[in-house]
Amino acid sequence: MAFDTVVTALTAGEVTLVVVACCVGAFLIGAVGIGGVVVLPALLVAGVALGPAIASVYVAFLPAGVLKLCVLGRVRGLIPWRAALACGAPAAVGAAAGGVLVESSPRRVMTFLVGGVAALAGLRDAMEIVDRKLKARAASRVTGGANGETRAGGTANVETANENGKRTHDSGDTVNSTHTHESIVEVEVVSPAEAPEEQTTTLGRTPSSSTTSFVDRFRKWYFVAQVIPSHERWEPTNNELGVLAVTGLLVGLSSVLTGTGGPLIFIPFVLTWKRSSSINRKTIIGCSAVLAAFLSSAAVVSLLSAGLRPDPGLTILMAFCAAGGIGAGARILQIASREFLQSAMTVLLLAVAGATIAKAATE
Q1: pLDDT at 80
Q2: Global pTM?
């Protein structure tokens, strides 16, 4: 039986476009939580029909999303499970309700709203970055001025001491002042510690890295031993859990109505809501990963029940790209600094906001 798939009808350039878009989008999803918005437009440009494209994207990215949860779950404190479950479960309900209302909803107004929230969060982050750099520059100037005054004062003291020494020498008040006393500096030579005896195996050989399995070496390199500090974790209160439940419901609903990803709506909202707190951005991305898993699962079930079937060849192609991209992005997320995440998310939010608003304006 022939393997019927739309991939065979695509040209080499169209396949390349799909692969690049999936890899880039998956990498951004793994690193900063937002990026799936670039995948669906690439499929439509390549000539894939809207229904199979949406179904294929959800099915292909679902296993990679679960993989991301497994990776991030190893970092203690990165996923705030109470907050994630409080918004994830209602998001699935909202996605199911959105599937019923998708034909009668004001899609253009909702898309404008999503773009506006993303733009607001991006502009706020940009202003915070600029303000932090200006404060750092002002602090460096103050420090540099203080160091300059210290050096000037030290030079003046040396010159005064030299003048006093000359006057003392000329007056002949003391003879000992003309003698130069050599300072003897005792140098303690510390011998290197004795190297420990090489650990030997039962066969009398030293263990070599070549004997370590590839899986063990990869696991040691990939999984970073990291813990989110307790003061940077997200411990939601009961009131915040209620807000998250309502937020998850609205995010799931608007995600289906606008055709955008749930994290694209959730992350800007949380950044704006918790802007004055010390919550680590990695915890927000971890929370959005749980929400995305709920949304994807609900979307797959609703799409299959509605009769939409994913294209098998396209799904397999995107699944490999999604796994590799999200896996690489999750590795970057583990080692990325807070400043890098903020800068990357600012650029991405502003770019996505511009594209979303432009899309809504042309509809």
Answers
A1: 93
A2: 0.68
